[in-house]
Structure formats: C-alpha cells, structure tokens
Amino acid sequence: QVRLVQSESELKKPGASVRISCQASRYTFTNYAIHWVRLAPGQGLEWMGWINTNTGNPMYAQDFTGRFVFSLDTSVSTAYLQISSLKAEDTAVYYCARDADVGWVDYWGQGTLVTVSS
Amino acid sequence: DIVMTQSPDSLPVSLGERATISCKSSQSLLHSFNNKNFLAWYQQKPGQPPKLLIYWASTRQSGVPERFSGSGSGTDFTLTISSLQAEDVAVYYCQQYYSTLYTFGQGTKLEIK
C-alpha cells in the first residue's frame, strides 16, 4: 500500500520559515508527481501546486508564488514544502498527495499542522 | 484559472435519503483527445486527509461504496449519494485537472437532518 508520511506539527513565530517533509514509500517515487494542498481553519481545500518528481520542475498556483518553494530529495523519496516569512494567515494543515499520473490525486499524507503565532 | 463553484455550501439530509451536490466549472472540462471530463470528487472527514471518490467525473475509485455516483459533462457535474449513511457526514470537494493549474470547489458540508 502506498504511503506518504509527513513531518510533525510546527509552531512558528511570524517572519520565521518552516520546512515540511513528505516521505513516500512502497512505490517508485520518481514516477508520480507530488501535489501540495492547504486547509486553513474554516476554509476549503486550496491547491498550492505540484512538483514533477522526475525533473524537479515545480508549478505553483497563483496564490502560492514567492514565499512557497517545493523541492525534492529523490535519494530518500522525499518531497519538501518550504514557507518563508510566515504570517498568521499561513496557519493551516498542509497535505502532500500523489498524482495518479492522469490528474486526480489518489494517496494523501496525514497532514502537517503549521501554527504561526507570536 | 478554472473556477469551480459548488452548491449548496451546506446540505442537511435525512438518513436513507438522497444527497445531491452540484459542481460547475468556468470552462468545459471535456477534453477532445479522450472524450473524458477531467473532474474528480473527494470526501474529507474532520481530522482526516481527503479521500478520492470519483475520477473522470463518473468512475468510482476502488473500494468506494456503490451509493456514491458522479455524473455530468462539460461544465456541470453532480455527486449523488443514493441513500445517506451516518458515516457519509463530511465535506465534499470537486476538483478539475483539465488545466495543469488544478483547482478545487469551495466544498459542500453534508450533514444529517
């Protein structure tokens, strides 16, 4: 069974940075893209973008350009989401998810809660 | 970007009754190369990640109960739960993958009346 295991919850101060990891197992990591999705309190799912795990090429949704960076370490089958200059409104659960190679997402990580508070 | 609009935002339904959720896209999701609609539906329960229910607008993911069905084409889509069970209480999202910039609908909260 495919698994995506994310890093633990983070508490950060405004202006700080955070890096979330998403380790994949039980499939060939470089064969399927990884998506990142945000769920803020009281809001719906927001698609942040995706990264091609074969080429490392990322694509960002319009609202997630600049402070958000997707990266990979294919040697350990892990994708990363880094958020810089954190703001209170970045408080959310962040999910990584595997593209089914056709467009929909078939497996999800458990989510990582990032809380930004002074 | 393709805008996805769901209705209603909240849907109270009695146990055993039918639940119907609508999803409209700002442009057609029907691709000419394979004549399929690039639309998926997800279910999200509190504290859990989303779960894939439907892809290609009407193909049920393996293991999803038959009471869940998807229909529609072009810009208008529907998720139907034929007989609501208590475990179906969740937020439901549609998502387009026609564009490489995917987008979700705002979600529909399904609850027991």
SSE arrangement:
The complex is a heterodimer of chains A (118) and B (113).
Chain A: E1 3-6, E2 10-12, E3 18-25, E4 34-39, E5 45-51, E6 58-60, E7 68-73, E8 78-83, E9 92-99, E10 105-108, E11 112-116
Parallel strand pairs in A: 2-11
Antiparallel strand pairs in A: 1-3, 3-8, 4-5, 4-9, 5-6, 7-8, 9-10, 9-11
Chain B: E1 4-7, E2 10-13, E3 19-25, E4 30-31, E5 36-37, E6 39-44, E7 51-55, E8 59-60, E9 68-73, E10 76-81, E11 90-96, E12 103-104, E13 108-112
What does this structure look like?
- The complex is a heterodimer of chains A (118) and B (113).
- Chain A has 118 residues and is an all-beta fold.
- Chain A has strands spanning 3-6, 10-12, 18-25, 34-39, 45-51, 58-60, 68-73, 78-83, 92-99, 105-108, 112-116.
- In chain A, strands 2, 4, 5, 6, 9, 10 and 11 form a 7-stranded mixed sheet that branches. A 4-stranded antiparallel sheet of chain A has the order 1-3-8-7, with no helix packed on it.
- In chain A, a hairpin with a 4-residue loop joins strand 7 (68-73) and strand 8.
- The radius of gyration of chain A is 13 Å and the shape is globular.
- With 113 residues, chain B is mainly β.
- In chain B, 0% of the residues lie in helices and 51% in strands.
- Chain B has strands spanning 4-7, 10-13, 19-25, 30-31, 36-37, 39-44, 51-55, 59-60, 68-73, 76-81, 90-96, 103-104, 108-112.
- In chain B, strands 2, 6, 7, 8, 11, 12 and 13 form a 7-stranded mixed sheet that branches. Chain B has a 4-stranded antiparallel sheet with strand order 1-3-10-9, with no helix packed on it. In chain B, strands 4-5 form a two-stranded antiparallel ribbon.
- The mean pLDDT of chain B is 96.
- The chains are: A mainly beta (118), B mainly beta (113).
- Chain A binds chain B through residues 35, 37, 39, 44-47, 50, 59, 61-62, 95, 97, 100, 102-106, 108-111, and chain B through 1, 38, 40, 42, 44, 49-52, 55, 61, 91, 93, 95, 97-98, 100-107.
